[in-house]
Amino acid sequence: MQVTINGKNYDVEKNTTILKACKDAGIEIPTLCHDDRLSPSGACRLCLVEVEGWKNLHTSCTAICKDNMVIQTHSDKVIKGRQEVLDLLISNHPLECLTCEKSGACKLQDYCYEYGITEGTYRWEMKKPYFDSSNPFYNFDSRKCILCGLCVRVCDELQGTSAIGFENRGFETNVATPFNEGLINSTCVSCGNCVSVCPVGALEPKSKEKFRYWETRDVRTTCSYCGVGCQMDLVVKGNKVVDVKPAFDALNEGLLCVKGKFSYNFLSHPDRLKRPMVKKDGVFVETSWEEAYNLIVNKMKSVKEYYGSEAFAGLTSARCTNEENYLFQKMFRAVLGTNNVDHCARL
Amino acid sequence: MTNSISEIRNTDAMFVIGSNTTENHPIIGAVMKQAKKRGAKLIVADPRRIELAEYADVFLQLKPGTNIALLNGLMNVIIENGLQNDEYIKNRTENYEELKEIVKDYTPEKVAEICGVKAEDIVNAAIIYAQADKAGIYYTMGVTQHSTGTNAVMSISNLALLCGNVGVESAGVNPLRGQNNVQGACDMGGLPGDLPGYQKVFKPEVIQKFEDAWGAKLSGKVGATIGEMFEGIEKDEIKFLYIMGENPVVSDPDTNHVKKVLSHADFVVVQDIFMNETAEFADVILPAAAFAEKDGTFSNTERRVQRVRKAVNPPGDAKADWEILMNIMNRMGYDKNYANPSEIMDEIASLTPSYGGINYDRLENESIQWPCLDENHPGTKYLHEKAIARGRGLFMPVDYVVSAEMPSEEYPLIMTTGRILYHYHTRTMTGREDGLNQLAPESFVEINPATANRLSILDGERVRLVSRRGEVETTARITEIIDDGVVFMPFHFAEGSANYLTNTVKDEIAKIPELKVAAVRVEKI
After folding, report:
1. What angle do CA A214, A217, A223 make, to 5 degrees?
2. Within an 8 Å CB–CB cutoff, is residue B348 touching chain A?
């Protein structure tokens, strides 16, 4: 079937949402509550579009295309509607961008900039503040929450944990754990997948480092814990990893677990080995690479000479790269002359 | 895995055995729960009532060490009810008659008795698995870490072949690998009998090929496994031990024995990112770069080769492992130099048929599942699609045999071990994360309330566990997750380590130790 978007005709499949049709046509629609992996919810109201013959503006994430539909995505009426939505959201949102950790990666901030919203014009009661800092890895600040519901739906639909939900109705609505007993007393497994999808600063990692997103660069890599091989971006400031974001275009489809998401501080831990060490009279003393190499190589040569190749054994590593494992076994086979190479595949 | 992680989303039935997936492979666990929501059936067999058990259509809380009996029981029900895939068996397998003969005796009633589960649950599980159009089996160390581990894996393969689930999308035989690159370490020849790509060291033509490529004389004698290395050190046959990125003092069975062996070794080199329990026994320690400090590739559990990229510099003078190894090889007079890991991958691809088409240019924009035979090969989503690799799928029927160590008067309980969500292996990395230590601070033992009652042990009480090999003190956690007569300990913790108790007895073929079954007693302190 065919639809007309902003005066141009497009072919679309049956059961396509207007949002998807626009996206496929390369037209960007602002969204705060939408995630391709989740069922549509229409919570944020920001993706409003105008459809010819329909009385009101409609949320494009929930409206399905019909044959010969005529859609406007950036008409004056639509822009005004979106500005109104942003005004309502920001009127009930603390303007703490100067100190908010999310600044620079906040979708609400970005859209307010795009749509020229400088402050909220609805000056009445603000949302009742509720903080939950009981989880060791992230904080929840209800004042910044825009109730997009992404965290609740990710936790339920993708992670399958359902640790959080909505409590109360209307203006009193909050994201909360059962009986408000706090995240630490819920079924939360600290995967942080809610934190990864929060478009604002309501769910924020407890970073050890102060950083601004515009000071960082992302490096795509593979998680170093279990064998699933999740892809993720290490967020790097200077020479330090300060945050981890899941990759969406990979096998893990935007999910990580507690270890992949939060357990990266070992990298810069003071206990890291920094220099080669040799044991002298039962005590380890630091040495140079040159001395360490000489000691190993001399020992290798003398063992090979006196006892032969079969006197060597090596444990390679399921933690190291393919290239390193390849070189390890090559060293044992081609240089030391033995197949005595194994690793902890059985453990 | 014969199949891919994403295929789980479209499966009709999942049979999870000996895998606490949501804790040990959390993202695969999440995908399984998504599949369940979408309508797939789920069968879980595990000695513990793990999270997935709560979602299962059938949960079989079997006694540790009885997997083969259960698998034979499932096949018995399938064949007795004519639910097997006759066409598949006829066209794609061989040795079916022998399988029929062996599983004939494993009636649901008999198996229920051996496994400590209900006969009707065995029947229901068998029907679910057999009636599903596409059914995948997912397993980990709960199947393999037994003295009969290899046989149990063959039994799983028998079940999959019986219902035509090998070489089919969203089905298959799927071992979930535990470590980030344990698949890659095996692929790269980190095994005593295998050169890269599982090319056998005892085949003269293989040796010839690698001798030509490497310009060195190679041995055609199969080398020593970890256990055999330790024996060799004790017998003074092995003098020089090089350990890269591994902590056997905590991870291997019978800790006292491992410590004795390491202190007996003539010369030990340890290359790691942290000082650890094993490095204490080293003569030289070399500081290595962590994953975020170097370039390379890991191969995941679904054979997917993916890039690892350098994000930050290593601390102090630490170097990437490949650089250290190359420097030592050069100093030993082997002159091959590599400017970067990409050049090493090119050499790997030239010698390893299954990695033949893999190079860093391709990996910049995609990940590739081996086998990938040449540069135009797209990689392989699932194995055995057109035909089983060996021609026909071979049924390898096996009988159930009891574990090496069964409960006795002196050691009346079965201890089984495993991992928990909040730590990784021997905690060298996760033990340095405050938040994880807050959530899982110390070693513990899970005890069923009935067992605890008999021993007058309270939740949170310090207890002593004793096996034939050693003893440890730990904290009791009284929980229904585990059956009466069975206790569970995570093996992550060096303090109160489960591996002081575990049995070193090994599977004769795979040489895997029986870490999942040890007879112990629990004492009040």
Report:
1. 135
2. yes
Q: CA torsion sign, A324 to A328 to A329 to A334?
A: positive
Is residue A230 in a domain?
A: yes
- Predicted confidence at residue A285, as pLDDT, reads 97
Structure tokens at B300: 């995941």
Q: Which residue of A has its CA nearest to B344?
A: A323
Chain segment A98-128, per-residue pLDDT in tens: 999 999 999 999 999 999 999 999 988 888 8
Q: What confidence tier does A345 reach under pLDDT thresholds 50, 70, 90? A: confident
Assess if residue A277 is contained within a domain. Answer: no
Structure token pair of residue A266: 């070992």
The CATH number of whichever domain residue B98 belongs to comes to: 3.40.228.10
Contacts of A347 (CB under 8 A, 6+ apart): B251, B252, B513, B515
- Same domain as B164, residue B23: yes
> Is the model's pLDDT at A346 over the cut of 90?
no
Q: How many domains does chain B have?
A: 3
> Taking CB atoms and an 8 Å cutoff, what residues of chain A touch B272?
273
Interchain CB contact of A222 with B (< 8 Å): yes
Tell me the C-alpha to C-alpha distance, in Å, between residue A293 and each of A261, A341, B286.
Answer: 37, 20, 9
Q: What is the ipTM of this complex?
A: 0.96
Residues B139, B37 within the same domain: yes
Smallest Cα–Cα separation from A345: which of B19, B155, B184?
B184
CA of A216 vs chain B CAs: smallest distance (Å): 11
Q: From A161, A178, A206, give the residue that closes a domain.
A: A206
Which tokens is A292 given?
């360490």
A244 backbone dihedrals φ, ψ, rounded to 5°:
-135, 135
CATH of residue A17's domain is 3.10.20.740
We report the CATH number of the domain holding residue A161 as 3.30.70.20
Task: Give me the domain span that covers residue B140.
Answer: 5-176
Q: What are phi and psi of B240, to 5 degrees?
A: -120, 120
Contact A344 B222 (CB under 8 A): no
The confidence score (pLDDT) of residue A347 equals: 78
Question: With bands split at pLDDT 50, 70 and 90, how would you rate the model's confidence at A344?
Answer: confident
pLDDT at A56: 95
Q: Please check whether residues B79 and B209 belong to one and the same domain.
A: no
Are B170 and B249 contained in the same domain?
no
Closest-approach residue (CA) in chain A for B220: A339
Please, are residues B179 and A344 in contact by the beta-carbon 8 Å criterion? Answer: yes
Give the total number of structural domains in chain A: 4
Residues of chain B with pLDDT under 70: none
Q: Are residues A248 and A309 in the same domain?
A: no
Give the distance from residue A261's alpha carbon to the nearest chain B alpha carbon, in angstroms.
12
Gap between the Cα atoms of A295 and A276, Å rounded: 11
